[in-house]
Write a structure and sequence with these properties.
Helices cover 9% and strands 32% of the residues. It is mostly beta strands. It has a seven-stranded antiparallel beta sheet with strand order 6-7-2-1-8-11-12. A five-stranded antiparallel beta sheet has the order 5-3-4-10-9, with no helix packed on it.
Length: 137
């Protein structure tokens, strides 16, 4: 920012994506998951995560795991991005969780578990990664 006076100009640098402060998780069409940096930090930057499911509430939970545990999934940073991804294909298949379209969810931290509610997606994620269908942008 150049200054705070209303007559001063600010340069827009389109190369820098704004950092989203709301934790978000995307259930991808493939059944894998991606999370934004806010979600990654909320989980204390996990190397691996445990996947949890509450069928009665239709909620998915993500918890920082022990790398030595056999039931955890490695978290990796997406190339050229501030987002992180991990496998969920076997998980979504085992619990018959719909994966026909990519959907984004607001995530909330409950104790040490980041939770998304499958009943309340923010919208379908379009192929154009700059917009979420049904939300205008």
């Amino acid at each position: 920012m150049v200054g705070t006076n209303s007559d001063e100009w600010m340069v827009f640098d389109k190369r820098k994506a704004p950092v989203v402060k709301t934790p978000l998780v995307t259930l991808q069409k493939s059944g894998n998951f991606s999370m934004n940096q806010a979600s990654f930090k909320a989980l204390k930057e996990p190397k691996v995560v445990e996947l949890l499911y509450n069928p009665g509430k239709q909620q998915i939970g993500f918890r920082k795991g022990d790398p030595a545990a056999p039931h955890v999934y490695p978290v990796r940073r997406q190339q050229n991005s501030l987002n992180y991804q991990f496998s969920g294909v076997a998980f979504t298949s085992a619990f018959d969780i719909e994966t026909g379209t990519a959907r984004r969810f607001k995530a909330e931290l409950n104790d040490d578990t980041l939770v998304i509610d499958l009943k309340h997606p923010l919208g379908k994620v379009s192929r154009d990664r700059t917009k979420v269908e049904g939300k205008g942008t």
